[in-house]
Amino acid sequence: MRIAILAVGDELLLGDVVNANAAWLGRRLSDAGLQVVASAVVADDVAAIAAATRQLLSEADAVVVSGGLGPTSDDVTRDALAELAGVALVLDPVLERSVRQWFAGRGVSLTAGALRMAELPAGATALANAAGTAPGVRLEVGGGLVVAVPGVPVELRDMVERLVLPDLLARSGAPHAIVTRTVHVALLGESAVADRLTPLTEDIADAGVRLAYLAGLGAVQVRLTAQAPDRPGADAILGPLVQRVRDLVGDAVCGVDGETLDRAVHRLLATGQATVAVAESLTGGLLGSALTDMPGSSKTFRGGVTAYATELKAWLLGVDPDLIEQVGAVHRSVAGQMAAGVRARLSATYGVATTGVAGPEPQDGRPAGTVHVAVAGPAGVVVASPTLTGGRDRIRRLTVVHALDLLRRVLSRLATPGAEQVA
């Protein structure tokens, strides 16, 4: 069954709110075996919503509309669906009682606008909202189906799971399972990853598997999607292909599916019953934040020192003042001593340090993008010195990726290309 998604809201068009509902709907419908063929965003405007829905119905069997069902004057999705179907809006007595009871039960005064939520296009069916007030709408139009759900994420997801998805699956017949596996690659460009996977192209085509790349900051996701009668069947197709990707890409692969780079680091630390502490300069706490985002990170993360001022590198981390005097704060040897110092002072198995120039201005005669990351551990100290490009925020966040990947490689006893053992 072909499904289209229409998100309603000026705030989505203007970028004030990220369109997370469409992303969730696309993923959830696809996971259930439904084919999502189009997605669009439209303003809070009756004519625009009606026109967009009409266009999507020409491309799909059903359209799922999110947003515009509340009690305020800009909630006009019901009006648009009535215009689309060429019918009037009518006050539904059952919905009216429900709305009145909801307000009365909470001791809240009923506004005139609230009763708008009890209106339906003639011939439409209401969808009960178990997580809020605004009911959804199901409407047959010209042989197609339109389902409107609230834009509040918790209400949308509850209504889709309970009412919308079962209905769509029943209409589509026995659904197939569509499964996507994701291989995470660190610090290897999208074109380089694609080049390494060239031998896989024929195998993927023969298996009817879709291959896609999603490039991020210092990372690439390789996404393999297969369709089969059921989940085990799709897993059987994808399992060998995931392993083939790992074999072809090599040790730049940092994880599969839910194991992103930071999670891989935590797993390796936990497996080795090891801990980590961080010493940060240009990243200003971003590395520590990345290492504490995951629940349970208290078992592996000892703490951190943000030594942004040059003198603090000596005072708090034990970096040799004479070394700083000779080479400045942005130097591979300084990074190595920072990592060793924080490891000793915080009694961690490993210390990780970052120092560099985030820009936009040079520092100590070194241009923006000059970066050193170091890992100190039982086997010594290793330092990598990537030259990064871009604005200040990009350089700082990319430094975090380099630091995490260097730690991953040290923990996994992998080669550290471009890095140097300094102690």
Low-confidence parts lasting 5 or more residues at pLDDT below 50?
Answer: none
User: Overall pLDDT, averaged?
Assistant: 93
- The residue fraction in helices comes out at 25-40%
What is the CATH level 1 assignment of the largest domain?
A: Alpha Beta
- Biggest sheet features: 6 strands, mixed
Adjacency order of strands in the biggest sheet: 2-1-3-8-7-6
The total count of strands amounts to: 18
The CATH architecture assignment of the largest domain turns out to be 3-Layer(aba) Sandwich
Radius of gyration (Å): 27 Å
Number of helices: 15
Count of individual domains: 3
Q: CATH homologous superfamily of the largest domain - what is it?
A: MoaB/Mog-like domain
Task: Provide a descriptive summary of the structure in words.
- By secondary structure, this protein is an alpha/beta fold.
- The chain folds into three domains: 2-172, 3-Layer(aba) Sandwich (Molybdenum Cofactor Biosythetic Enzyme, Chain A); 177-256, 2-Layer Sandwich (GMP Synthetase, Chain A, domain 3); 261-421, CinA-like (Maf protein).
- Helices cover 40% and strands 25% of the residues.
- It contains 15 helices and 18 strands.
- The strands form four sheets. It has a six-stranded mixed sheet, sandwiched between helices.
- Helix 2 (20-31) runs parallel beside helix 6 (153-172), helix 3 crosses helix 4 (77-85) and helix 10 (261-271) packs parallel to helix 15.
- The chain is elongated and about 80 Å long.
Q: What topology emerges from the helices and strands here?
A:
Layout: E1 2-8, H1 10-13, H2 20-31, E2 35-42, H3 46-57, E3 62-66, H4 77-85, E4 89-91, H5 93-105, E5 119-121, E6 125-127, E7 136-141, E8 144-149, H6 153-172, E9 177-186, H7 190-196, H8 201-207, E10 210-216, E11 219-228, H9 231-249, E12 253-256, H10 261-271, E13 276-280, H11 286-292, E14 301-306, H12 310-315, H13 321-327, H14 332-345, E15 350-356, E16 371-377, E17 380-384, H15 392-412, E18 419-421
Parallel strand pairs: 1-2, 1-3, 3-8, 13-14, 13-15
Antiparallel strand pairs: 4-5, 6-7, 7-8, 9-11, 9-12, 10-11, 15-16, 16-17, 17-18
Helix pairs in contact: 2-6, 3-4, 10-15
